[in-house]
Write a structure and sequence with these properties.
heterodimer; A: about 325 residues; mainly alpha; MetI-like fold; about 75% helix; globular; B: alpha+beta; nine-stranded mixed beta sheet; four-stranded antiparallel beta sheet
């Protein structure tokens, strides 16, 4: 147990350092992009005077280092600042988006994680059979297609025929059942995108364990194949499976902007892309920090679970 | 309303004797004006000898053209972003133009479907002093959504929001000619210009110049989204969704704005827009790519709407860089462009032929084909101009990217083929989309570009073709053109003004560095549960972005 606690503390410390470096990196990248908010929001109508007026108003006329330190100072006091374009607190902008994104992530995970683990166990049970091959090929085909294409296929089959809506334009007041119905197609699309990865990792991990002597022992004492896989192999294969699940969950939070656009879903990804487009640095920073925290947090969780699942790691000195 | 309520069928033509004809005429008139019911009209018509089919035809035609009150309009529109702010000075794209100007906060003036300008929150105006001094009447009895009565202070503060050295407005260029704007009593506004400009009422219809209530300290309240428009802002999630509802005390209710509520959804992906229209999730969409426009035709209960305005794809040549510094070379290039082929193959036929002249279908003083004949693909003529320039062959580079206009690189490839017949070799250089406007356009001697066009001749000429214009993207300098530009601006005699603008179009056409092959159509789709007038505006898409005011539930 002390192992776990010291690991958590160490990881959190490293996580904070990662976030700090990342915020600097993001800030520099957005700075390196041509143009700034003043020029982008004025577009073709920009005149030097109006651009200067907006810059002065937003403090964009100050040197980058001052702006970064100001922002950092605010964040350390828990203030993420205002969106430059909307002049509203970032938190009011992000709160509804983060709810939407987490909802879609959980919805997808609730379908994809059980599905891919059960399929993974099933294909390792019947490995090299036709069932194994067909399942693998289908999953690989789904993951090989670009996400927007999978999305369009879903729309073609399920939305144009009238079964499900093509737009998942939910908001805070949408009742839960409506949300589940509206978001079904994006969740299904994302399921198809992430299932192959998790399923194949489950299969590989289980098959790896199946080659070990203790499995042979179990087989020799006459245990059924299904019991061998679920009772004997799975507990020892948890570490790699949990890790790949964590990576995919993080992906669902951070990497679904294309699916958001296809299904008109108001999530975090769209917010970040708009932030980059309009050079709205505080919005980009805040979303990037959320994404990075999701990666750090989920990986930490995966490590904790794999440590607990392995008594050798638990007792290590 | 722009649509006509007069049915095409006339029941008096079905009866023979004069007296019954008069009776039938009166009957039809009282039905059209709503004095008698449909049942009454049909039974009386049949009684005086009109066929049932004839009477029914009139009923159907009248009812189809009569705007019905109620229902909901849901639009899927491009150009929304999470950074969209309600400040009218920072309105950038279709979504916010439609919500702000088209639903919630109308301007002093608006453009009619036929291209004429009409007072909206201003009820009339007079120009004097060579169009340098303008007096606008503020419409009386107009109420803002918060109950405040519209008066001259609201108008003055709303326009001043875009003026002055500290303004942050994208509309500052539009009002740059205004020296002062002052209240003249409660319902009058006086505007002084730095030079005469007969187009001021049209300029005031610009999508930035929405009228907001004054805070009383010289600034306006744009934060609340309160305006004097037909719909009140109920819910606004920037770039995602906006819901507006009918305003009970709207000054012109009954005549325009027939919906109970309007929902605007930001849908930037073209496939998602088509899917939303096809499944009935929205009633109307804008910006259908020409490539997929044929899909609209195959959808059930969906109609295609096309308007060709001033949106133009252009190929500017820099007139101060060899070889384009020779007028003959520019003319040779203009003759090797096969415009019809570009229109058919690049834009799938959705557009109109351009004539190397930026004044387009939505402009009032556009030269007709008698005044300025259509330039055709003519390699012989191109050879002649080359010879005039002292050249036997010519080799030029055309710099293009899809940012310039969609299909620009392919257009270059087509031109390369059509130019061979005249001994001109065009090398098409594919440029990166990123940074196109700063590194290629106005930098390379010949590039691809597009303009959304401007509602007035003066506006586009002084913004792009005047020798000292910021965006003189052809580096063109023609003193007789510049002189006519200033003269035409303050000319108040319409016929003389037209002559001047036509002459200027002729000069650009013959001497300018502008090759303008095609005016592009806006392609839109709507579902048949919505009725659209016969004539729609072409100054902006979606009926000049006033769809919420001009359309109704079928």
């Amino acid at each position: 147990m002390p192992n776990i606690i010291s690991m958590i503390i160490k990881r959190l410390g490293l996580g904070v350092l990662t976030l700090l470096l990342l915020s600097l990196l993001i800030f520099l990248s957005v700075e390196a992009l041509p143009g700034d908010l003043a020029e982008t929001i004025l577009g073709q109508q920009a005149t030097p005077e109006t651009v200067a007026a907006i810059r002065k108003d937003l403090g964009l006329d100050q040197p980058p280092i001052t702006r970064y330190l100001n922002w950092l100072g605010g964040v350390l006091q828990g203030d993420f600042g205002n969106s430059l374009a909307l002049k509203k607190p970032i938190s009011s902008l992000i709160a509804p988006r983060i709810q939407n994104t987490l909802f879609l992530t959980l919805y997808t995970a609730a379908i994809a994680v059980p599905l891919s683990i059960i399929l993974g166990l099933a294909v390792s049970l019947f490995r090299n059979s036709y069932f194994d091959r067909i399942t693998n090929t289908t999953a690989l085909a789904a993951i090989s297609m670009p996400e927007f294409f999978v999305g369009y296929i879903m729309i073609y089959f399920f939305a144009l025929s009238g079964y499900f809506p093509s737009m998942a334009n939910i908001n805070a007041n949408t009742p839960l059942l409506d949300k589940l119905y509206l978001c079904f197609l994006p969740a299904l699309t994302l399921t198809l995108v992430v299932t192959a990865h998790m399923m194949r990792m489950t299969r590989a991990a289980i098959i790896n364990v199946l080659a070990l002597p203790y499995i042979e022992m179990a087989r020799l004492k006459g245990a059924k194949p299904s019991r061998i896989i679920v009772r004997h192999a799975l507990p020892n294969a948890i570490a790699p499976i949990v890790n790949v699940v964590a990576l995919n969950l993080a992906y669902l939070i951070t990497g679904v902007v294309i699916v958001e656009i296809v299904f008109v879903f108001p999530g975090l990804g769209q917010l970040m892309v708009d932030g980059v487009k309009f050079r709205d640095v505080p919005v980009v920073q805040a979303t990037a920090l959320i994404f990075a925290s999701a990666y750090v947090g989920l990986n930490l969780l995966a490590d904790i679970i794999s440590t607990i699942s392995n008594p050798r790691l638990m007792r290590q000195r | 309303m722009s649509n006509s309520r007069n049915p095409k069928h006339d029941i008096s033509s079905e009866v023979s004797d004069k007296e019954t004809q008069i009776k039938a005429k009166k009957l039809q008139e009282s039905f059209i004006s709503g004095k008698i019911s449909r049942r009454n009209f049909v039974s009386t018509s049949v009684a005086i000898g009109v066929s049932l089919a004839g009477a029914t035809a009139v009923v159907n035609q009248v009812e189809a053209a009569t705007p019905k009150s109620g229902g909901r309009l849901r639009m899927g529109i491009t150009g929304g972003a999470t950074s969209d702010i309600l400040d009218p000075g920072q309105i950038l794209d279709a979504y916010m133009i439609n919500v702000s100007m088209g639903q919630v906060r109308p301007n002093m003036t608006k453009i009619n479907p036929d291209g004429s300008v009409e007072g909206d929150l201003s009820s009339g105006w007079q120009a004097s002093n060579g169009a340098k001094t303008w007096k606008f009447d503020v419409r009386q009895g107009v109420e803002f959504h918060n109950g405040k009565t519209l008066d001259s202070t609201d108008i003055v503060d709303s326009i001043r929001h875009h003026m002055g050295p500290d303004t942050k407005s994208g509309g500052s260029g539009v009002v740059s000619g205004i020296v002062s704007i002052k209240e003249d009593g409660k319902y009058g506004v006086v505007v002084e210009l730095n030079e005469g400009n007969g187009d001021l009422p049209i300029l005031l219809s610009d999508y930035h110049l929405n009228i907001c209530p004054s805070k009383g300290d010289g600034s306006i309240d744009w934060e609340s989204g309160i305006g004097a428009g037909p719909y009140t802002l109920e819910e606004h999630e920037p770039g995602v969704r906006t819901l507006t509802k009918k305003f009970a005390n709207y000054w012109n209710s009954g005549n325009d704005s027939h919906f109970d509520e309007v929902e605007t959804l930001g849908i930037n992906d073209p496939t998602a827009r088509l899917a939303a229209l096809s499944t009935g999730a929205v009633d109307a969409i804008n910006n259908v790519p020409a490539k997929t426009a044929s899909r609209l035709k195959s959808m059930v209960n969906v109609k295609t709407l096309i308007s060709t305005g001033n949106k133009q794809c252009t190929m500017p040549m820099l007139c101060d860089v060899a070889p384009f510094d020779d007028q003959n070379v520019r003319n040779a290039i203009k003759h090797i462009i096969n415009r019809q082929e570009l229109l058919d193959k690049i834009f799938f036929g959705y557009g109109q032929l351009g004539n190397d002249n930026p004044i387009g279908p939505a402009n009032y003083f556009r030269a007709n084909t008698d005044e300025l004949p259509q330039r055709e693909y003519d390699p012989e003529q191109a050879k002649y101009f080359l010879k005039q320039a002292g050249l036997s062959s010519l080799s030029v580079k055309f710099h293009a990217a899809d940012t310039g206009f969609t299909g620009a690189v392919d257009a270059g490839a087509l031109m390369r083929e059509s130019a061979k017949a005249a001994g001109i070799d065009i090398e098409v250089v594919r440029e990166p989309n990123d940074g196109y406007w700063s590194n290629v356009w106005m930098v390379k001697p010949w590039s691809a570009c597009y303009w959304s066009g401007r509602p007035t001749e003066d506006w586009i000429f002084s913004q792009i073709y005047y020798s000292k214009a910021d965006w003189n993207d052809t580096h063109w300098n023609n003193s007789s053109f510049d002189k006519l530009l200033v003269e035409a601006r303050s000319e108040t005699d319409e016929a003389k003004r037209r002559d001047k603008y036509v002459e200027m179009q002729r000069i650009v056409h013959n001497d300018g560095g502008l090759a303008l092959p095609v005016f592009l159509s806006e392609i839109m789709g709507y579902r048949t549960n919505i009725s659209v007038p016969d004539q729609i505006a072409n100054n902006w898409e979606l009926d000049g972005h006033l769809a919420a005011r001009r359309w109704w539930t079928a």
